[in-house]
Inverse folding.
């Protein structure tokens, strides 16, 4: 594709090694629907593989979800040219007035994505991957961030919790999973939302993306509101004939147990981003994630050992007040 004259400026960065730049056109042109800006992705091939991004972008667009279109690609050098979904994230736009419409749109887009699910199209969110993510918690959050060495009894108790969590996660119906479907990766666009940061998509548990959305590491709503939006998703999913449990109580339990897996993983990832990659800002979001985790674990007897461990690690400070 031949581009007209343009100016280039940083657009955004994420938790990976990818960088994004906005190319703003400085003369009239007719390509890409006359768009006045495009996004250039720079993904160093030694650290990032652009091919999953291109593959998942096509799946999202084919599903009717508003995702960036790949206009040009140089896979060997790690460059993509993408349509621009604008500058307003859900995280920036959400407040009490805007939230009902924005979350309704996000739920509708999620259902479109899940309805498009096909076996053997995306990598499996299998036992090995889920388990590897869980171990980020003891390896990075506990050992590296907190500087705590678990004793044999604590390690055994935590492994038993992991087995219970994995058994639940792996028993859930499987659909396409974005894997980071939250306020920083959803853009306020027309049609709404625009969806970003989807290159790690997998085929896995149906509640995962809803957990990402409603128990967001970057913005928190009280549990009554989370429950209301979860019911709205569940009702629409049933209408769309997605394989959600016919009993909402059972669906909610799966949602919470999937959340435990995600929150343990996220605490480990945030610790790693801080310690290994020098991205200290994520530490400020840890208490929110820890609060989600502590409240969910306290509701299920099988998770009592996790609740006890969290209290041991934080001297009781993990006892979060109701959201």
């Amino acid at each position: 594709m031949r581009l007209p004259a343009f100016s280039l400026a940083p657009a955004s960065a994420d938790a990976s090694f990818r960088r994004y730049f906005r190319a703003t056109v400085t003369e009239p042109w007719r390509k890409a629907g006359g768009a006045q800006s495009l996004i250039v992705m720079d993904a160093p091939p030694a650290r990032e593989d652009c091919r999953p991004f291109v593959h998942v972008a096509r799946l999202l667009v084919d599903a009717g979800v508003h995702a960036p279109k790949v206009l040009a690609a140089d896979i060997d050098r790690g460059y993509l040219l993408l349509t621009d979904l604008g500058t307003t994230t859900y995280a920036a736009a959400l407040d009490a007035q805007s939230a009902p419409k924005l979350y309704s749109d996000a739920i509708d887009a999620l259902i479109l994505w899940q309805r498009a699910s096909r076996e053997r199209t995306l990598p499996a969110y299998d036992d090995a991957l889920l388990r590897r993510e869980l171990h980020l918690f003891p390896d990075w959050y506990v050992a590296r961030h907190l500087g705590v060495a678990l004793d044999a009894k604590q390690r055994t108790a935590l492994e038993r919790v992991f087995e219970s969590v994995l058994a639940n996660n792996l028993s859930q119906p499987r659909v396409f999973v974005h894997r980071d479907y939250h306020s920083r990766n959803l853009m306020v666009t027309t049609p709404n939302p625009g969806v970003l940061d989807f290159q790690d998509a997998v085929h896995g548990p149906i509640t995962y993306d809803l957990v990402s959305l409603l128990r967001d590491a970057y913005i928190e709503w009280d549990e009554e509101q989370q429950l209301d939006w979860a019911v709205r998703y569940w009702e629409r999913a049933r209408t769309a004939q997605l394989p959600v449990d016919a009993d909402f109580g059972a669906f909610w339990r799966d949602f919470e147990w999937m959340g435990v897996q995600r929150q343990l993983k996220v605490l480990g990832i945030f610790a790693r981003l801080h310690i290994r990659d020098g991205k200290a800002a994520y530490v400020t979001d840890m208490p929110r994630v820890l609060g989600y985790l502590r409240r969910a674990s306290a509701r299920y007897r099988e998770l009592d050992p996790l609740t006890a461990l969290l209290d041991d690690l934080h001297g009781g400070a993990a006892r979060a007040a109701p959201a």
